[in-house]
Design brief:
Distance between the termini: 5 Å
Helix content: 10-25%
Strand content: 25-35%
Largest sheet: 8 strands, mixed
Number of helices: 4
Number of strands: 12
Strand order of the largest sheet: 4-3-10-6-7-8-9-5
Radius of gyration: 22 Å
Structural class: alpha/beta
Shape: elongated
Length: 206
């Protein structure tokens, strides 16, 4: 099926306008299965129809999608860190709806029980879980604009809360290792659950 009128020429200004529109607050991040995602899909469908394309909806379920049901919070030494600038939820994180507080300790410390573990990766997860650590803080980089990108695929959730900290900040956090001197504390929530999201492709003709 052909379009009823010629499609407008592609231009950098038109592309920029589209990206700017999709970044608006009304789409609230556009994550799959959310109201924002469905609203963004409907908006894209209307843009395609406006240039004469025939658009249909092809719905399908996506299992094991990680969903935030509240914004995570993280404070260190009383300072509130900024979600997606300073820290972000990790796909391997267990659900942590209520705040959990603990001192920071390095992954190679003698004991991990009751502490947040500042770890280079998830390799210490089994030991941390076995000893009753509060959770893990692992490093992650940012994009060119300073944002911590969202992840849609990765390891399944484990037994401990896991937060990814901006790499340079992760390096700066002081920890208690073997010294009896107490370090400053971290306090966090990570309200994330696994769900099956209802998604849709927008096939078009013309």
């Amino acid at each position: 099926m052909t379009t009823t009128r010629p499609a407008p020429a592609v231009s950098s200004a038109r592309l920029r306008t589209t990206v700017t529109a999709l970044a608006e607050d009304r789409f609230t991040g556009r994550r799959v299965g959310t109201t924002g995602g469905r609203t963004a899909a409907a908006w894209l469908a209307e843009q395609l129809r406006a240039i004469g394309a025939t658009v249909t909806t092809d719905a399908f379920p996506v299992p094991r999608v990680r969903e935030l049901y509240r914004t995570p919070h993280l404070t260190w030494d009383g300072r509130a860190l900024v979600h997606r600038r300073d820290f972000v939820e990790h796909l391997a994180s267990a659900d942590l709806p209520a705040p959990a507080t603990g001192e920071l300790v390095r992954a190679d410390a003698d004991e991990l029980g009751g502490l947040w573990v500042l770890a280079p990766d998830l390799g210490v997860s089994a030991r941390a879980s076995r000893e009753g650590a509060v959770g893990l803080l692992v490093p992650r980089g940012t994009d060119e604009a300073g944002w911590m990108p969202k992840m849609i695929a990765g390891p399944p959730p484990g037994n401990l809360p896991v937060l990814a900290i901006r790499t340079e900040l992760h390096r700066q956090l002081p920890t208690r290792r073997r010294s009896p001197r107490r370090s400053r504390c971290a306090r966090s929530t990570s309200p994330a659950r696994t769900c099956t999201a209802c998604c849709a492709n927008l096939p078009r003709r013309g």
